[in-house]
Amino acid sequence: MKNIRWFxxxxxxxxxxxxxxxxxxxxxxxxxxxxxxxxxxxAQIQEVKGNVLVPLRLIVEELGYKVNWxxxxxxxxxxxxxxxxxxxxxxxxxxxxxxxxxxxxxxAPLLTGGTTYVPLRFVSEQTGMGVTWNxxxxxxxxTTPSTSSGKSESSRxxxxxxxxxxxxxxxRAVIGQISFTNHQLTIAVNGKVTPKVTTLxxxxxxxxxxxxxxxxxxxxxxxxxDKGGQGAFPVTDDPDVSQVRYSIFSTNPASVRIVIDLNxxxxxxxxxxxxxxxxxxxxxxTEEPAPAEPDTPITPTxxxxxxxxxxxxxxVSHHNGNIDWQQVAAAGKTFAFIKATEGINYQDNxxxxxxxxxxxxxxxxxxxxxxxxxxxxxxxxxxxxxxRAIESAGGRLDLPPVMDYENNPKGISTAQxxxxxxxxxxxxxxxxxxxxxVYTGNVFASKFDPTFSMYKLWVARYSTxxxxxxxxxxxxxxxxxxxSTGSVPGINGAVDLNEYNGTIDELRSSLAAELD
Length: 516
Hints:
The chain is an alpha+beta fold.
């Protein structure tokens, strides 16, 4: 693996494609293992938005590697003649191949004046070489990795390497969903992860690197990466965030990077209870207090709210694992919304089991669909997927079918949001014979025009004291999701908690009246 990392270092330094403008250059001191290799050749260091970039060709020449450039295809190959190693990369393509292993770049090197420059921070994160920048001395210190004694890893058999690769692949955590709502980023992941979360300035952003992880096929089909190997969605309903970006930061080792682009610096806290959710919650700047929820690691708790005897419920998906519904019912939970579908084709693999388990425990059951559509036609296709899932569960459920529409990853207009939502709701009602209801966040709810007041509102606002506020379409709520970190017997880890705006008897009566 050391050979691969060292070779990866060389490829990073050779990669060249247009970078950001307004780079500032300065005289450089570049030391490789204590030897100054920059001053004699007039090397320059580039600084772009606070990032230090160092020249490539100079260092490669010092190390004596063979480099070939193919101008017709803009392809660079690097070879080590002493070992069976080579890499291939292409200008403007941040995905390169190192001995058959793909590696992605999250930051762009700079090509200026015929010289290639590479971001120093990325090199230090991705290679085995020690890299240090001394701002006072304006010097880059490079240290080559030590050579291990005995047999190198490259001497292992191909079958052993392939077995190790397959084992690593099978044990990677899989990220199935990334969303931003209610002032927090939620990462739905199948498997245990230990994210490394840091802040960067110029511009302000929160960076979450998740090692030993990959993006699921379903996620990539719904939110595909661009030709640059990155994806993004705008955040239009939060004053502190402009967008969320994600990329396959590295495939050797596997790593996913998620970046929250901030409008200004803000503090945050991370919640990771190995329950299928990693939450990066931004601390409140406004007069509204942040939910009283603990930092990582969290111990799920039952929030205390003044509910006036209102019915209490939960909402779950496959991320909550296998649920003991009898224990849930014994804990006083009387209704449950269960994730059924997302997008055009996806059905939650725990949907049917959860529906049956809740029914057996005499819990009122409803289903929800996570909406990704950006067009009217797409909304209707997603409605058909939702209707098929409901039919597979026996048809009409106790609670109305729910449209979960809580963010705007493609940045469509408010008018388009309303068109898409209306198309989905109309199609669900046509296919199921039931009038659906709307789930969304308290802020995103303001996107819906007053005509949506005909639908019941299930609204998320995480607080035990601050109830949801009125918006143009709704003056009151039907159900309130007041926590995403609740604790309920029978469920491992944190779970979403909800309250119906009335008693359980009133809920049952209203549902019975709708059947008449």
